[in-house]
Design a protein that fits this description.
This protein is of the alpha/beta class and 323 residues long. The chain is built from 11 helices and 10 strands. The chain has helices at residues 2-24, 42-58, 73-80, 95-102, 138-147, 162-174, 186-194, 205-213, 261-276, 278-286, 296-317, and strands at 30-35, 61-66, 88-93, 114-130, 152-156, 178-182, 200-204, 217-222, 248-256, 289-291. Helix 2 (42-58) crosses helix 9 and helix 4 crosses helix 11 (296-317). The chain starts with a helix and ends in a 6-residue tail after the last helix.
C-alpha cells in the first residue's frame, strides 16, 4: 500500500509538471523570442534558427520579434513585464551583463528579474574598414590614430555591447583615441561603414559575414584569441600587434523571473537539442558562430562572472553613465 501511494504521488507530480509545460507550450498559443537588435544581425540570425527548430519540435508557432534600442534594455524591459509561462523569451548577448555596469539606472534588475535558461553560442567580433579605405591593418589604424588624433570613430551595436567594449579595449591598449558611434544593431553600423559615414566598425562575424564576402567591407582583424573558422586568413588583433587583446561574445536565452522549474528544465533541454542538430550547428558554424550550450545554472554563473570580470575594466575606462 505504501509503495502504491508513492507511485501515485510520483505519477501526480509528473502530470503536474507536464501540465505546466503543456500550458506554456501547446498548439493553441504562440511563443515569442525577443531580439534586442535590428533584423539581420548575428543575434537575429541565431534566434531565427532557434525559432524554426523549436516550432518544428513543438508543432506550434514560434516567432522572433525585434525590439532594438538602448543596448538591449528596451527588449529586456518588455520581457520583464511578461508572464513567466515560457511563452515569452529573449535572446541576449554578453552586453546584457555589461549593461549592469554601464547604465546608472536600469528599468530592471539584471540578476533578479530574469530566469537564465541556457547559453547557446560563443562568437568573435571583427574590426572592419570600408572596402577602399587606406586602413588595411591594425598597424595602419594605430598609426593613423596617433598621427591624426581625434579623427577615428567606430560603429557599434549599442553602448555596453561586446563590440563597444572591443573598441574601448582597443583604444585603451593602443593608446589611440577612437570615438564610438552607437547604432541599434550590427546591421545599422555596418551599413554606415559601407556608406563611408564612419571609418571603422566593430561587428560580430556572423553579422558582417555577408558584406565581407560581397567585398563591401574589409576585415582587418578578429577580437578572439584564435582566428575564426569563417575567415582563417584574417589575423587576431593580438597577433597583429596588441598582444594582450582578447574580447569574446556569447548569446543566451532568458525568461522572466519566477518561471516554473519544470518549464525551465524543458526549455533548456529542447533548446540544447535544437542546437545539437548537426545541420543547424553546421549552418551556424559556417557563419562564424560556435554552438555552446549548458545548464541553466551554468548560464547564471556566466552572467554573474561577466559582471565581476568587467566591473574594474569599465570603471577604469569611465564608461559608467556614458550612454
Amino acid at each position: 500500500m505504501k509503495n502504491c501511494k508513492i507511485w501515485i504521488q510520483f505519477a501526480l507530480f509528473g502530470l503536474l509538471a507536464h501540465g505546466a509545460w503543456a500550458t506554456a507550450q501547446d498548439s493553441h498559443g504562440t511563443t515569442r523570442i525577443l531580439v534586442p537588435f535590428v533584423a539581420g544581425g548575428a543575434t537575429d540570425i541565431v534566434a531565427r534558427q532557434l525559432a524554426l527548430k523549436l516550432g518544428d519540435m513543438w508543432g506550434t508557432t514560434v516567432i522572433v520579434e525585434n525590439r532594438p534600442g538602448a543596448a538591449g534594455t528596451i527588449a529586456s524591459r518588455q520581457l520583464v513585464g511578461s508572464a513567466p509561462d515560457g511563452k515569452t523569451l529573449i535572446m541576449v548577448t554578453s552586453g546584457h551583463a555589461i549593461n549592469e555596469l554601464i547604465y546608472d539606472k536600469l528599468p530592471y534588475s539584471t540578476l533578479k528579474d530574469f530566469t537564465p535558461i541556457t547559453q547557446v553560442t560563443e562568437i568573435a567580433n571583427v574590426l572592419l574598414a570600408k572596402r577602399d579605405a587606406t586602413l588595411k591593418t591594425v598597424a595602419d589604424v594605430i598609426a593613423t590614430g596617433k598621427a591624426k588624433p581625434d579623427t577615428l570613430s567606430y560603429g557599434t551595436a549599442g553602448a555596453g555591447t561586446s563590440v563597444h567594449l572591443a573598441g574601448e579595449l582597443f583604444s585603451a591598449l593602443s593608446g589611440v583615441k577612437m570615438t564610438p558611434v552607437h547604432f541599434k544593431g550590427d546591421g545599422e553600423s555596418i551599413v554606415a561603414l559601407a556608406g563611408g559615414h564612419i571609418p571603422l566598425s566593430f561587428n560580430t562575424i556572423p553579422g558582417a559575414r555577408t558584406m565581407i564576402n560581397a567585398g563591401t567591407v574589409r576585415p582587418i582583424a578578429v577580437t578572439s584569441s584564435t582566428r575564426s573558422e569563417a575567415f582563417k586568413e584574417v589575423p587576431t588583433i593580438a597577433e597583429a600587434g596588441l598582444s594582450s587583446y582578447v574580447v569574446s561574445n556569447w548569446f543566451g536565452v532568458l525568461g522572466p523571473a519566477n518561471m516554473d522549474p519544470a518549464i525551465v528544465s524543458k526549455l533548456n533541454t529542447d533548446i540544447r537539442n535544437a542546437f545539437a542538430d548537426p545541420a543547424t550547428a553546421k549552418k551556424l558554424e559556417d557563419s562564424g558562430i560556435a554552438v555552446k550550450t549548458g545548464s541553466a545554472k551554468d548560464f547564471d554563473s556566466l552572467i554573474r562572472n561577466d559582471i565581476t570580470k568587467w566591473r574594474p575594466i569599465i570603471a577604469k575606462l569611465g564608461l559608467r553613465g556614458a550612454n
